[in-house]
Amino acid sequence: MTEAQAAKEILVLTEQINYHNDLYYQKHKTEISDYEFDLLLKKLQALEEQFPALKLNDSPTQRVGGAITKNFQTIVHQYPMLSLSNTYSVQELEDFDSRVAKGLDGEAYEYFCELKFDGVSISLIYEDGVLIRAVTRGDGVQGDDVTTNVRTIRSIPLRIKGSTFPNRFEVRGEIFLSKEIFLQLNKEREDIGEEKYANARNTASGTVKMQDSAEVARRKLDCFVYYLLGEEINSKTHEESIHKLESWGFQVSPTYSRCANIKAVIEYIENWEKKRLALPLETDGVVIKVNHLEQQQQLGFTAKSPRWATSFKYKAESVSTKLNAITYQVGRTGAITPVAELEPVFLAGTTVKRASLHNANEIERLGLCIGDYVFVEKGGEIIPKVTSVDLSKRTSGLSPVQYITHCPECGTLLVREEGEAQHYCPNTLGCAPQIRGRVEHFIQRKAMDIDSLGEQTIKQLNELGLVNSPADLYDLKKEDLLKLDKVKEKSAQNMLGGINASKAAAFESVLFGIGIRHVGKTVAEKIVRHFKNIDNIANASVEELLKAPEVGEKIAQSIFNFFRDERSKLEIQRLRQAGLAMESSAKEPKKESDILNGKSFVISGVFQNYERDQLQDIILKNGGRILSSVSGKLDYLVAGDNMGPSKREKAEKLGVKIISEKEFEELLKG
């Protein structure tokens, strides 16, 4: 393919992908499957890699992420992002309305109401219709440049539709995690033995500031926009600006309404108090704005907030109900989760019977007694939680809850590691929920993807003594499966076919599926890229494990301990004998030059513009070699921030040249 042909094909693919993105996120329709959409995206990525000069600034491939940001640049807002004053009652709303009427000297006015979403405020700057910068609210005067991460959010246009728009304008919006995605993230964290996130808002905030934009893309953030700013907007009302944003391809929540007076505003608030609970994201109130923009300017601002707008905050619904018991769940990693068993009560649109109590510390903080009446809220209107004890209803003779000391499933004495909030059952191979959970984790879609098996099938296989670890799956025969309830010849054959097909899974899926505590899918991928095969991982010291991207002390120690356990070694050996991949199938980087030919490098520390594995790829592409330790044969030690002093001392002693990130870049220029 010539460059001219490639340019034409890139434009066609870009238009197709943008069309389907708009159809999905703005019109909530689909014309092609996710698989077909991914094929279009991969085709575009391949062309851009082959012809990098043709990559467009607003290419849809930027939504996939992959860039690493070590530091976020501070940007001063052209228009300060002020906070809103809050109201909590009808009286306070009427007081706000009186101030508006007084400020406008009796002139007629109307309001515009929007639901207030509990997310992260963002400022989006567009020039010539292209997104050039995204900045967090920060302190209202200045915020952080998070453009690379925000480009991964598919509901934010990289290039807006149409042609009648200002040369430069700013859009304000709220970035959020949907309730569904938040629950999925928590399920994944629970699966690898991590503490669950407390609420969707803080999780979205942390995601926007992550260093790896590829991980941001996986989190599936979303965004509603609600305000348009600029010198050449030419709108007379806020409502008119909202309609412009919609026509340009921005996602605006359809829950807004123009209200003729404060009475209509109060009706809007009352109307949405219950209805908002059915929305796919968290809401915590209503924003009320004077609709006409000239009147907004006339009313002006206080030092902290606009006089023409306020927010009404809904009170968190809290109910009192009886705590009948506390049960204790055992997770795949042995983590114990206490659960409050409640007298059923209707709360925020659903009947609540159970609520998480998190850990022993939380039970002690609450001072719980079985038989207490407790106040229950929905955390972020998603997860029920016990917030306090209704002491006015406490009866005499109740004793404080004593946290269990032994596993409720197998009776093993629980352990609690220093610095950890949760208790764990250490009986990994003899505790039924852990055994089943480990196999269920192994067969899931992100791991070995054996969809012909399921939770009930695994439970039966375990109860029959046929499957006590993932490796046992590969020893199953048809006659074993025919012992299961309702399993006939064809079903058994499908199960065996799924198990056999899983042998083709990539090594990173195998490593994730093995189920090492704290090792999620992303971490498994980074480790595989760094170490290449199972033996390198198994033989690595904690210090060597810490050199891999995304691996901190907790993960490194967990991996190290796993591979020192004789039972784990046996499991790996059996999986290897079954034919599972134990090394990366990724090809070595394609050679680009010989500029580093014959030169050897050790990479250490944290870098401004690269991850260590990215530097490694660059060195290999340009003919260099990577060594694992400093020796007299080493040519260069590439030193980043926080490099261990022992490496530097050894390099200086042996006369090895120590170079910075900038000096390395100069070396590449020849």
Question: What is the topology?
Answer:
Blueprint: H1 3-25, H2 34-50, E1 74-76, E2 86-87, H3 90-103, E3 111-117, E4 120-127, E5 130-136, E6 142-144, H4 147-150, E7 168-176, H5 179-191, H6 200-208, H7 213-219, E8 222-229, H8 238-247, E9 257-259, H9 262-275, E10 283-290, H10 293-299, E11 309-313, E12 319-330, E13 336-347, E14 350-356, H11 360-366, E15 373-379, E16 383-389, H12 432-443, H13 455-463, H14 478-481, H15 489-501, H16 507-514, H17 521-531, H18 534-539, H19 542-545, H20 553-562, H21 566-577, E17 600-604, H22 612-621, E18 625-626, E19 636-639, H23 645-654, E20 657-659, H24 661-669
Parallel strand pairs: 2-11, 17-18, 17-19, 19-20
Antiparallel strand pairs: 1-6, 3-9, 3-10, 4-5, 4-7, 7-8, 10-11, 12-13, 12-15, 13-14, 15-16
Helix pairs in contact: 1-2, 12-13, 12-16, 16-17
Active site: 116 (n6-amp-lysine intermediate)
Protein name: DNA ligase
GO molecular function: DNA binding; DNA ligase (NAD+) activity; metal ion binding
